[in-house]
DNA sequence: CTTCGAAATTTGGCATACCAAATACCAGCA
DNA sequence: TGCTGGTATTTGGTATGCCAAATTTCGAAG
């Protein structure tokens, strides 16, 4: 039966018999503009100068080969995300976070990641946890090599993201990713300090052990303290404003 | 000195000597459309039917007396926020969350609010904490009266929001507000059950006492368990899909 | 040389028009 | 009656143009 009603119903209800998704035949300009802008902002040294970083709709639309409309929609999305701020008759400026805001972000991150650790300790499969340990080993081996990286330690973040994935909550993953994005943007000499304070391998090992032991309370506490320590470090040693 | 350069610099740097914000002389159509749509979605019984809830750009633009452009920008923002999903040649549909997603939201909420409790216990002024107790008293008195409310207990949410404000972190407040929005949308008979499970006054009192005693660990644990209990309740007693 | 202000320019907000894709409709055929 | 195929319509995506507000420019007055 391929009646129109049935087809319609199938679409409406999702008919999850088949696990395929309607693939976006052609990525819209809006999406592409969004991705391009976010990418550009990612690789921008936001805190490198004091001048306001502002973008120009028309310039962007020309460079991307699209009209202003989809760019404006992409900007609206990034504005909602807190990365941009469109000021009438001024321009679209890249938002700089204050030190206080960054600290709030790290604290929220501590909350989310410690919850992830708790959930991971109580739910994750032994296999998944084992993968985390394998990842940690790799992380430890490449420590010195990656130490040169002038961004906020990629490996370090990757470890934390792996931990969060263990919780099985894609929401926690999405929320922390968003927070990471902002914290990561602080390129600064003191980032090395932060990194050092943050990446103590022993902390990571303890966390893994707690999760392996299915000790949710301990895992949560270790992660929370670990990340809050970073917040306190930023509070006392980083100067942004 | 009111030279142009000085004026310009003042604008550029923000000159935070004065804590006033450039007030948007006339709220843009985009903002108004955003607010109107969000308001509409708020008062929509999203889970009341199985049919896909879809909106029409042109219809909305007519009703709001604006063109499609600002409406599309507002839709893009709400899409970013996860409330809407624009499907090409289909329409703009209001996103329904699965039960699993709702549970993830409550767990994230537990993470954020328990962190807020921790911060409140260690930072909030005695006066602010006292206000929380006063608020609790009022909340308790009006319990029976408000019990009729067929939405997710307003008073209950208000208590939690007051607690979160105590942390002093506007980020935690913003993030939990967003989560509340989605959880609130589940209008369902079982919401009463959730409410009952959630609003035990004794829990609230214990939380206040822990904060007053500056016992951060205890305050955090009480709030976390309190909210995770709701998650477990939803998991076993609410049926959405 | 500085100050002031009016005109030109810039820039985001908004409206409108067009397009392509996907659906809905309907006539015609088996 | 029921299916099929083609056409009309709907609908979101995009381009374009105009507008008002704010800035910048620049020349005239002091």
General description of the model:
- 2 copies of one chain form a homodimer.
- In chain A, strand 2 and strand 3 form a beta hairpin.
- Chain A is elongated and about 55 Å long.
- In chain A, strands 1-3-2 form a 3-stranded antiparallel sheet.
- Helix content of chain A is 67%, strand content 4%.
- In chain A, helix 6 runs antiparallel to helix 11.
- With 241 residues, chain A is mainly α.
- Chain A has 2 domains: 67 residues, Orthogonal Bundle (Arc Repressor Mutant, subunit A), CATH 1.10.10.10; 139 residues, Up-down Bundle (Four Helix Bundle (Hemerythrin (Met), subunit A)).
- The N terminus of chain A is likely disordered.
- Chains A and B meet through helix 4, helix 5 and helix 9 of A and helix 4, helix 5 and helix 9 of B.
- The first copy, chain A, binds a DNA duplex (30 and 30 nucleotides) through helix 4.
Q: What count of helical segments of chain A does DSSP give?
A: 12
Question: What structural class results from the helix and strand content of chain A?
Answer: mainly alpha
Mean pLDDT of chain A, nearest integer?
Answer: 80
CATH architecture assignment name of the largest domain in chain A: Up-down Bundle
Sequence of secondary-structure elements of chain A: HHEHHEEHHHHHHHH
Largest interface: A-B, 37 and 37 residues
Share of helical residues of chain A? 55-70%
- Tally of structural domains of chain A: 2
Give the full name of the CATH homologous superfamily of the largest domain in chain A.
GntR ligand-binding domain-like
- Main β-sheet, spatial strand arrangement of chain A: 1-3-2
Poorly predicted runs of chain A: 1-24
The largest pleated sheet of chain A is described as: 3 strands, antiparallel
Termini distance of chain A? 66 Å
Write down the CATH topology of the largest domain in chain A.
Four Helix Bundle (Hemerythrin (Met), subunit A)
What is Rg of chain A?
22 Å
Please identify the oligomeric state: homodimer
Number of strands of chain A: 3
CATH class assignment of the largest domain in chain A = Mainly Alpha
